[in-house]
Amino acid sequence: MTDDGLFRDDDVIRVVSREGLLIAAGGVASLLQTAHPKVAQGVYDHSYTADDPVRRLRNTMGWLYAVQFGTREEAARFSDLVTRGHGKITGPGYEANDPELQVWVMATLYAVAVQVYQLVFRRALTPAELEEYYQQCKVYATILGCPADRPPADYPAFRRYYAGMLRDLEITDASRAIADQVLYPKLPAGAGAAARPGLAAVRLLTAGLMPAPIREQYGWTWDAARERRFRLLVGALAAVYPRLPLRIRTAPRDHYLSSTRRMLAKLDAPRRPALGVTGATS
């Protein structure tokens, strides 16, 4: 990858985030974020997730990979686009650029990535790795304008913050509506039958990874049978996924990062002059 980015290839944030399997757990992070009533209302009022989930995924992953693996310029430019877009997302009692919400979104991205990585690779990150990774993940908030002193200072402080949020959050009808959109997305014509098994697995993974207090508020059924299916799914992933060649595991990163670079290049391209104005041939 590039050598002028925010991070080095051996930084924990890159070692963890390069794994394409994390995308399958994106619903967990997303629905943890919208368990916060202010995030939920902003998404419900303004997001295009329901109408175009593929575009939403492309933009989210494109931004994350630009920050994690792109050049400093790419990370800054895409983040500026996100910040300006979020500036329009305001409503009664919420605004997307609120540091409180930026910290919560950052927290969910970190917590879910750690959870999935450790489950699939059957390796607990060391205290030093957890601390390093946490400090690096603060960029998800600070690069969007969140003051550097707003996120919890270190990993132990983060754990206290996160546990308190899971205890105190009360999800809303908007949260539940968004959950239906995320778990039962509109798909391109003809893709429904082929995608059905994969979506069922993603729903099981999402429910199994979701912290119990939030899962209960969403009203998802969770019993011994679903727990067994979840454990079988995670076991299968742990047996197969780490043995795949790295180039396959990182293919989603390479795809979305290439897409991001094409998008940024289009923004740089000069507009072609219209006929009849200066520069047009007669």
TrEMBL record:
Domain ER-bound oxygenase mpaB/mpaB'/Rubber oxygenase catalytic: 14-238
Domain of life where this protein originates: Bacteria
Pfam families: MPAB_Lcp_cat
PANTHER family with a match to the protein in the record: BLR2777 PROTEIN, ER-BOUND OXYGENASE MPAB_MPAB'_RUBBER OXYGENASE CATALYTIC DOMAIN-CONTAINING PROTEIN
Name of this chain's protein: DUF2236 domain-containing protein
Source organism: Actinomadura parmotrematis
